[in-house]
Amino acid sequence: MSEYQPASRVTRIKESASVAAAARVRELKAQGRSIIDLTVGEPDFDTPDHIKRAAIQAIEAGETKYTSVTGTPELQAAILGHVEKRTGFRYVPQQLTIGGGAKQVIFTALMASLDEGDEVIIPAPYWVSYPDMVLANDGTPVIVPCGEDTGFKLTPEALQAAITPATKWLILNAPSNPTGAVYAPAELDGLGAVLARHPQVYVLTDEIYDEIYFGEGRISSLAAAAPMLRDRILMVNGVSKAYAMTGWRLGYGVGPADIIASINKLQSQISSCPSSISQAAAAAALAGDQSFVRESVEVYRARRDAVVAGLNAVAGLSCRSPEGAFYAYVNCTGVVGKTTPSGARIDDDQDFVLYLLDAASVAVIPGSAYGLGPYFRISFATSLETINAGVEAIDKAVRALN
Ligand code: PLP
Fold it and tell me: Which pLDDT tens digit goes with each residue over 133-144?
C-alpha cells in the first residue's frame, strides 16, 4: 500500500504555536503537574447571560436551519451597526462576509485573493497564524521586523521598503496579539500616505481586540483614518474576545464589495454559513447591552498593571505596558547567556520558556513563535491570583540563574 502524502499546502505549514502550547499545558496537567498557565488566548469570563439566552431562544424558535451565506438579517444589521459606530461609515450587506471566527474569515480572504507569487506584508511580532495562512494559500509572507524602539509598530518607512509590485496585502493587527500595541491616528495617517501611493496593495485590518482598549475613547481604525483607502481595506472582527465567545465561532469581514463577493463565493462552497445559533448569539452581543465589555476592560486593566509592574521588577526582564488586548510581550534579553541551576545555558527565548516550565511550572509562549525574539508572551486573561503567582514564580526562577 502506498503511503499517504499530504498536499504540499499542508507540508508547507506548521501547527499553530498557541494551539500547541495549550495542548502541552493540558498534557502536563493530565500528568498531575500543577501549571500556572499564562498562555491563554481567550477571556476567562463566561459568555454573558443575555447572549446565552438569545441562543436558547433561537433554538426554541426553530432558527436551526441554514441561513444565507452572509447571515441572518438580524446579524447583518448588528454587525453593520457596530462597524458604523467604530468607523463612522455605513456599509451595506454586499460589503459583508461572515465565517466560523475571524480566523476563518482571514483564511478565506487570503484563499479568495492570493495566487502564487503574491506577497503579503506581515509586521513582526505577528499573530502566529498569519504566515502559515499565507503559505497555505500559495502566497509569500514578507515579514517586516518591528522592534521595541517603534513600540512594535510598523513605520511608514518600513512599509515603503517592503512594498514591491507583487505586494497584494498588508496585514495590520491592532491592538496586537502578542504586543498589545495600538496605532495612534497620526501613525495610521503615515501608513495611509504610503498606501495611497501603491494602489495594488490591499489592507486586511485584524481588529479582533478593538474593544479591549485601555486608552481614552474609541480606538482608531485605518478605514476611519484614511477614508480614501476604504475600497482597499478589509476589516476583520468577531465576537470571540470582546464578548467572551471564543467557542461560538463567529467572525466577520467588512470591506470592498468585489473582494467580499469572491470570499462569499468560496464560503458558499466551504461551510455555507456559520451556525445559526451562534449568529443569533452574536447579533445579541453586538446590538445588546455593552456593559460586559466595559466591565471586563477594567478587570483586564488591573491585571495588565499587575503584570507590567511585577515583571519590570524582575532583574533581566522588561516589558512595555500594552495599550490593548490581554497580552504583554516581555523582553528577556537580560537572561540570555545565563546558566540554569542544572548547568544548562539559556541561549534564546525558547530555552528560557522551557526553563520556566520545568523550574517554575509557569507556561508562557516564546517570542520566536511570533517572529521576534528574545521575548515571551504572557497572557493576562486569567485571575489576578494566577498572575501574581506566575510573576512570583518567574522572579524566583530568574533569581536562581547564574
Ligand atoms: N486575530 C487575532 C490577532 C487573534 O489573536 C485571534 C485569536 O486568537 C483571532 C484573530 C481569531 O479569532 P476568532 O476566535 O474570531 O477566530
Answer: 999 999 999 999
Cell of 253: 469581514
pLDDT in tens, 176-186: 999 999 999 99
Angle at 288 between CA 286 and CA 291, to 5 degrees: 100
Output the CA 98–ligand 1 centroid distance in Å: 14
Structural class in CATH, domain 65-287: alpha beta
For residue 277, how many other CB atoms are within 10 A of its CB? 18
CA 117 to centroid of chain Cα atoms: 25
β-sheet bridge partners, residue 205: 172, 235
pTM above 0.90, yes or no: yes
- Under CATH, what is the fold of the domain 8-46+292-399? Aspartate Aminotransferase, domain 1 (3.90.1150)
Q: Half-sphere exposure (CA, 13 Å, Cβ side) for 123?
A: 31
Q: Where are the domains of the chain?
A: 8-46+292-399, 65-287
Top mutation candidate among 208, 239, 370, 379 for ligand 1, by most atoms within 8 Å of CB: 208
Asked whether 103 lines ligand 1 (CB < 6 A), one says yes
The strand ranges marked E within 146-238 are: 167-173, 202-206, 233-238
Ligand 1 contact via 180 beta carbon (within 6 Å):
no
Burial class (CB in 10 A: 0-12, 13-18, 19+), 45: middle
